[in-house]
Structure formats: structure tokens, C-alpha cells
Structures
1.
Amino acid sequence: MSRRVRMAIVGCGAISHWHVDAMERSAVPIDVVAAVDPVAANADRIAARTSAVTYSSLDAALDARDIDGALIAVPHHLHEDTATRALGAGLHVLLEKPLAPTLDACDRILDAAAAAGTVFMVAENAQYWPEVRTARRLVAEGAIGDVVTARAATFFPALDEFYGGTRPWRFDRAAAGGGVAIDTGSHWLRPLRIWLGEVDEVVAALDRPDPRMEGESLCRALLRFASGTIASFDAMLAQGAIAPQPLFTITGSTGEITVEASGWVKLWDGRDWKGTKVGEPGGYLQSYEYELADFASAVLDGTEPAAPAAYALGELRIALAMYASAQSGRWEKVWA
């Protein structure tokens, strides 16, 4: 293998461009050589930014190109078929979250990855989010004493690049597997798990303030962790302007940590009523650079990824437990 990863991007929608943006900003040793999408215009847009040749299917790309790995960024209900094809062809795979919309599909993908013996990562970029890592360090250092509770809040607009067009697949419950909890919510659930450990049970209420989305466009939930700590999770596809608010709040026995939308982490320990900025401003988008670097290192150097692929089962199980709770009106176990 060369000292660069020859990558196929399979699914050339909006999120694939965020990955290409990260490649352009950084020196990650990845070359995009194939752009695969049944919609030719989507593949053409990726090809225009990279050295890629366009293909209408993964099989066609495999027949024509020498490819080391694949970034799979297709709708959720296509994850299993696409990932198992790529793994079966001996490719290293970086699969967009969620792992799959059902636990059975996840098991089959993980089995295929084990049989392939290649690098398999789930592209949950929150694992690499600079502010999340800074907050993790502060918690570990005891900057706020013992953690008492936490909140994750993601209120975001329906961006045209993800929700535009006549019938975006994210509005389709069958294609997405649900709504905001299973999709964007995973980026807010992963940090809570990084800081607080595994979630034992959840209670949730769902609603559909955006009638275009068949799944929930509003989720409010409480999460009880195995440690006994309780945190809240709020997600909404907003239809209007949203006031600034922290993305995350971690409350301890002696202070608080907030992660601001501006990219700053603030420590509230009583020394400054405006909070103390910690480190340098990061940024959510920077996480894609670290994610791609981790994948390339695993492929080229055999390093262990920051999180094993099976770890992504946690966010899916939490979302599925939220859906069960909304139906039952009770606390539901996550790892039943």
C-alpha cells in the first residue's frame, strides 16, 4: 500500500462535502479517487473538488479502480448493504453514523467487519470534537468537583444542504430510522457518554413541530447513567430563530463547565462572573479533521482508533430506548 489512502466516497450528499472540506484544511494522507452516487450531479460535485472518477454504484467503482477504503455516507437504511459490500471487497470502511437503524443490522455489519479483518470505524465525529475533549480533561482533573448532572441541547435549523429538495430522505421515517434522536442527536449523546459513562435507562417525550418530518422533530429526555447521575437531552429541528445557549452544561459539586456555540469552553468556578475561557476556541467542524486522521493512521500504521466501531451501539440503543419510552410513558432500559 502507498503511504496514502485511496478513498471512495460512497454517497456524495452534503456530509461528504464536510469531509472533503476537512481534507482540504488538513494534511490528512487521503486521496479521493472515486465518487459514487446514483445521482450523477452529486458525484460530479465531489469529482470537481477532488481527483475522483465518478461511478453510479460501488460495484462499478470496485471493478474499475484500485481502492483502499471507503467513506460511506448513504441514507441510514442503506448502511448495512453498502457497508457489507465494501467490507466483503476487502476495503477499510469509515461508515457515517448511526451504525445502522436497527440492532440486528448493526450485528450483521459488525460480523462482516470482523470477517474482513480490515479497519472499520463509525464516523461519529463528536469523539474528536475539540471542546468535548477539553471538557473531558477538566472533568478528569476535578475542576468542578464531582459531577452532579449535565445537559446536552441541540436546537438547529433545517439547513437546505441536508433537508432541501422535494423529498429529503431525513424526513422519511423508514429511511432515517426515526427523527432527530437517532440522527443529529448522536453527536450530543456521544459527549455525554464520554464524560459520564454508559446510560442505564431513559424516559423521553417526542413531538413533531415540523410536520414535514415523519419521525420526531422534537425530543426531550432524561438519561440515568450507570453511576446514578441524571442528565437531560434536548433536540429540536427548529423552524425559526434560536437564541444562543450552551451546547453542553456539566454541573459539578464546586462549579460548572459549559461548551458554547462560539467554540469556547468556559469554566465557572466563582473566580469570574463571566466564566473563564479554557484553551483556545475549537469548533465542531475541526472534529472531522481529527476523525479522518485517525482513520488514515489506523489504515496506514495499524493504530487503534479512538473508539471501536461497536461503541456506536450506545447512541443507537439510547435513541431506541427513547422511542420505546415515548410509547410506554415509562423509564426504559438502554442495555436490556
Note: The first strand starts at residue 5 and ends at 10.
2.
Amino acid sequence: MDKQRKKELADAYAHSFRPMGVYQIRNTANGKVLVRSSMDLEGARNRFEFMKQMNTNTLPELKADWEAHGGGVFEFSELDRIKPREEQLADRSELKKYQDEVDALAELWVEKLQPFGDKGYHKPKG
């Protein structure tokens, strides 16, 4: 593949939308969940799988259970996606307008799942 074609593909990738939305990490040993959002769900899944492979936890909320049970008891699942209104980004700064939507969606999922106390890793607001 020539340099020009590689550059075109890299530019197309840089200006494309990644799947964005909300996911959960669930502890299969005790059923607790951690709800998170991401502007790049595939990237979040890849980071999580890498953490499991390396048995290295970078999520402080999971620290105690990760040490007690190991990374193998945790699973990643997508809860919801936001569909972009356009096909392409004219500029990466356009992603900022989606960040509020992603954050609001995450709050709705936390409200719905109530992942507090024995049900999850979140601390109640208040």
C-alpha cells in the first residue's frame, strides 16, 4: 500500500465516529456492576480485555474485588449506544457536543440499575 493511500485511510479513520455510549463491568462472583460511558466503546472494551489479560486493574472502584477474585470474574457488556447524526466529523472538536449526551445516558443507566451497596461499585450522590 502506498503512502498516499495509507494517509487517506488514516484521515478517514480520524474523521469517523467510533461507537459511543454506556457499558457495564459486572463481577460474576457477586453480581456487582460498575457503569461507565465512553466516546469509544470498542476502545473501552479493548482496554478492559487488556487489563484482564495482564491481570492489571486500573479501575479503583474494582480494586478490592479484583484482588480477592482476580480479573477473570469481570465481564464487559455494552448497555446503550448513541447514534451520531452525521456520518463523518468535519473536525474532532465536534465530538464535544456528543459528550453531554453520553454522560446523561450514563446517569440514566445508573438511575435504572441502582448499582450501589451490594448491587454495585457506585457511591450514592448526596
Note: The longest strand covers residues 74-82.
3.
Amino acid sequence: MVNLIPVKHKFKYASLKRQDLPEGRRYVYGEQKLPSVTTIISATKDKSGLEAWSKRIGKENADKIKNEAAAVGTHMHNVMERMIAYRDLPRPTNWLMTKGYEMGYHLINTYFKNIQEIWGSEVPVYYPNKYAGTVDLVCVYRDKPSIVDFKQSLRPKRAEWIEDYFHQLAAYALAHDEIHGTEINFGVVLVAVQDGSTQEFTTTGEEFKQYKNAWKERVEKYYAVGGLPAPKTGSNGNKD
């Protein structure tokens, strides 16, 4: 991939340890255990639709569909991550793995031509005392500094259905700007659908600013509803 898209290491990304706890994923930064972006999204989203769907088809079937989709998504992400890092992929050992590989290559062939530079792949970011997460791709996409997230779906999406995805982009952009002094104002969601189609959703300008503000409110709601205080700063007064 480096022969197709320049990889430029413009930023030094912190190494954060991940912990999967009963209350959700945490990233360890110094003395702080920061909730992940996806943990905050899960804790603050309206789950009534998902619960109704699970009840309608039965919990066993719903769990099977979710677990298989998660496996496909993991294999799809592996394709992008290893292609960017110029690392070999393991040979597929099951059909879910094959499907994930197919979808990953489809996204690459369809959209990676729009990437001018790669700054980081699967890189950790954090907003001090608030949250942390792992970004699929920080890059220049369509000539704009961008946060890019890869998704897989059983069926095509509509923009009004994926507000959580836009909040996720906003979270990563805010964290990257805070730590690395950037001004990222372009977010991209690339979706591989299991029927073989792909989708590109973007947000920028005033709309992206609104998503950033909505994300800040969501973080505050997470701490308020959960009864959790935001992590404290270190004894030296700095944000550890």
C-alpha cells in the first residue's frame, strides 16, 4: 500500500493499554482509565429499536446475527490494517473470514484512490480526563485532513440512521485536535454492505461542528447518568 499511497508519520501517537471490563472498555493513560468512545455511545444511545428487533426474531437468532456480523467486521478491518502496514493476511479458515476479506478489498478498491496521504492507521487517541479510542484511519481524503471509519452492514444505510457513526468521527477529531494541534473538519464513513455494495458518507463544515458539540453533550451525559466523575488530573496539575 505504501507504493500506492504515501505514509507520513506526522504525529507521535501515545501507546494506550486497553482493558475490557464489565462496565465497558477502558483505555489506560497514566493514572487515568478513560472510557472508550464506543462505550460512551453504547451507554447513551436509544436501544429500544434494537431491543424490539431482538424480541421479534428471538434472542438466540439476534445474538447469532450480531456475532457473525462482528466477526465479518473484524476480518474486514484486518484487510485494511494489514494492507496499509504492508503485512501479509492469514489464509481464510472459514466463510465469515472470506466474506470479511472480500468486503475489505472492495472498500480498498472503491475508495482508497481518494486518499492522498496516510498519517496513521489503527492509532489510539484520547481527550484528557474524558475518553479515548482507536481511529481506523487518519489521513488526507479528497484533499482534506480527515478521520475515516470503516463499517460493515447487513444492508445499505441511510444518513439519518447513522448519527452514532458521525458522533464517533467527531469524538476522534476532537481528541486528535486537542492532543496534536490539528484542525480536522472532515469525517468519512466507508460502509461495506454484505450484498456487495459500498457506501460513502461524509460530514464537514458547520454540520461536523454540530456533531462535535453533540458529542461533547453526550460525554457529559455519560458521566452524569452513570454517576461517574470525570477522571482527575494528576497531582502535578497536568492532564496525565
Note: Strands lie at 17-21, 24-29, 32-35, 115-127, 131-141, 144-153, 186-193, 198-204.
